[in-house]
């Protein structure tokens, strides 16, 4: 299914776009079906409409809460919260919403996003301030020793929710570490089922693949270990010798030099030509101007760098894509890396960027972590995440929009990334809402 993704940038026919934007998703689907049956419609447009059919089917799950339901959810923790307040947060873009069939619906993680980003909401809800002491200790350690290495052992699992399960063939992909500069000594230790296929370490979107005929619901899991090793970088503009021409081209449908990207690149670049200074300007724009926000599924966002630059909000992957696209537009090599952020206490999905300036080679940029540090006034940490990464990572994906080995037959939950796991029956892919996915830390320790 990844083959058709390059058509996502094609504009929708006006009547379909109008029906979608007015919230009449049934009418939009009806119009798409009419266009799909028309022999005069080019094949490229039909492929774009095939993508839109999938997007329209996902929107209700991504925006499930009416305003009344959203308000009741907040009042469980903030009893005096008012509808007027909620609408103020909607108007400033902090609580994402759409209109569907004449009713306003809020994004599935709008409240979690508000609590994560806005201290006043978190405090009213009784939450504790975020603790960044582990990150700050790592920065001090990296600057002192020049590197950091951690041994990590994890167990990732996936199970179909009982209400979605049916007997028959099930195919499951679970992400595991992929070979890259910051992943060493990768080992697959144990798996739930015999006969699983383990993609080669060189796979840029690496998974363990299970294919089983099930008569009853079962959990699929894989246990693995790796060493996360990172070097400290302190690049200086006066030492720059130039850039290579790798990873500087467009990559449809997301890394594209749209009019907005070109204009923003020119505005931020000015007369500057030093690629390290330019990359820092792009990083500063994203970290200082883009507000973190949990996102709907990426497939529903359109051209993601434009989404981020025009709305000035986005999660880790959205921010990384804007940085990568601006770098490439300026001729600076940049690429994607993603997987999970792993500490002894937590495991969460995460995306970040890499960029290359000679003679320093490939370096990291984590705009999400940098942005949260900047908002908190932690400017040393903000500086650190331009050029550096912490060792608390699992990198399972080294390219955007990379195919699995073997490929998934039906639509992936996230065609662009490889973080959580995917599953499908013979006749359809399973949605995020139909799966229980987890990743637990078995062992994690620092070593010299």
Flag low-confidence runs. none
Backbone structural class:
alpha+beta
What is the CATH third-level topology name of the largest domain? C8orf32 fold
* Strand proportion: 25-35%
Profile the largest sheet. Answer: 5 strands, antiparallel
In whole angstroms, how far apart are the ends?
A: 44 Å
Whole-number count of domains: 4
- Rounded radius of gyration (Å): 22 Å
* Multimeric status of the protein: single chain
Helix proportion range: 25-40%
Shape: globular
Primary descriptors:
Immunoglobulin-like; five-stranded antiparallel beta sheet; single chain; four-stranded antiparallel beta sheet; 448 residues; globular; 4 domains; alpha+beta; 33% helix
Gist of the model:
This protein is of the alpha+beta class and 448 residues long. The chain contains 14 helices and 18 strands.
Walk me through this protein's architecture.
Helix 11 crosses helix 12. The chain is α+β, with helices and mostly antiparallel strands. It has helices at residues 14-21, 25-36, 43-62, 67-75, 83-91, 110-117, 119-124, 133-145, 259-269, 275-289, 304-311, 316-329, 367-375, 379-384; strands spanning 65-66, 97-100, 103-106, 147-160, 168-175, 183-191, 197-198, 207-214, 219-231, 291-292, 313-314, 334-342, 347-357, 361-365, 386-387, 393-397, 422-425, 435-447. The protein folds into 4 domains: 2-60, no CATH class; 65-124, no CATH class; 147-230 and 401-447, Immunoglobulin-like (Sandwich), CATH 2.60.40; 233-387, C8orf32 fold (Roll). The two termini are 44 Å apart.
């Amino acid at each position: 299914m990844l083959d058709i993704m390059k058509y996502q940038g094609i504009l929708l026919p006006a009547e379909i776009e109008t029906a979608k934007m007015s919230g009449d998703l049934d009418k939009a689907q009806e119009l798409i079906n009419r266009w799909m049956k028309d022999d005069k419609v080019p094949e490229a447009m039909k492929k774009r409409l095939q993508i839109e059919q999938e997007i329209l089917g996902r929107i209700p799950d991504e925006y499930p809460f009416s305003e009344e339901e959203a308000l009741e959810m907040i009042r469980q923790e903030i009893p005096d919260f008012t509808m007027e307040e909620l609408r103020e947060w909607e108007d400033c873009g902090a609580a994402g919403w759409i209109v569907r069939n004449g009713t306003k619906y809020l994004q599935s993680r709008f409240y979690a996003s508000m609590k994560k980003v806005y201290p006043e909401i978190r405090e009213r809800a009784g939450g504790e301030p975020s603790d960044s002491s582990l990150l700050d200790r790592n920065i001090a350690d990296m600057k002192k020793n020049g590197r950091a290495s951690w041994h990590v052992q994890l167990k990732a699992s996936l199970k179909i929710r009982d209400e979605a399960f049916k007997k028959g063939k099930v195919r499951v992909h679970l992400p595991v570490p992929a070979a890259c500069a910051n992943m060493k000594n990768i080992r697959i230790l144990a798996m739930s089922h015999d006969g699983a296929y383990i993609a080669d370490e060189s796979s840029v979107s690496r998974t363990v693949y299970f294919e089983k005929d099930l008569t009853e619901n079962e959990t699929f899991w894989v246990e693995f270990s790796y060493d996360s090793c990172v070097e400290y970088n302190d690049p200086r503009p006066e030492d720059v010798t130039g850039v290579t021409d790798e990873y500087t081209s467009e990559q449809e449908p997301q890394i594209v030099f749209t009019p907005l990207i070109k204009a923003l690149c020119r505005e931020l670049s000015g007369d500057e030509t030093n690629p390290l200074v330019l990359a820092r300007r792009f990083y500063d724009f994203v970290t200082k101007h883009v507000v973190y926000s949990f996102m709907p599924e990426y497939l529903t966002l359109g051209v993601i760098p434009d989404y981020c630059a025009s709305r000035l909000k986005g999660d880790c992957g959205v921010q990384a894509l804007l940085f990568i696209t601006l770098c490439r537009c300026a001729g600076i090599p940049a690429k994607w890396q993603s997987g999970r952020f792993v500490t002894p206490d937590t495991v969460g999905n995460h995306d970040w960027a890499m960029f290359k300036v000679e003679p320093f080679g490939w370096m990291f940029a984590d705009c999400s972590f940098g942005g949260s540090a900047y908002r908190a006034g932690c400017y040393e940490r903000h500086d650190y995440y331009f050029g550096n990464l912490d060792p608390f990572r699992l990198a399972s994906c080294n390219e955007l929009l990379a195919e699995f080995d073997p490929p998934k037959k039906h639509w992936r939950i996230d065609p662009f990334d490889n973080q959580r796991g995917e599953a499908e029956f013979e006749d359809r892919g399973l949605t995020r809402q139909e799966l229980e996915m987890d990743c637990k830390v078995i062992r994690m320790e620092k070593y010299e």
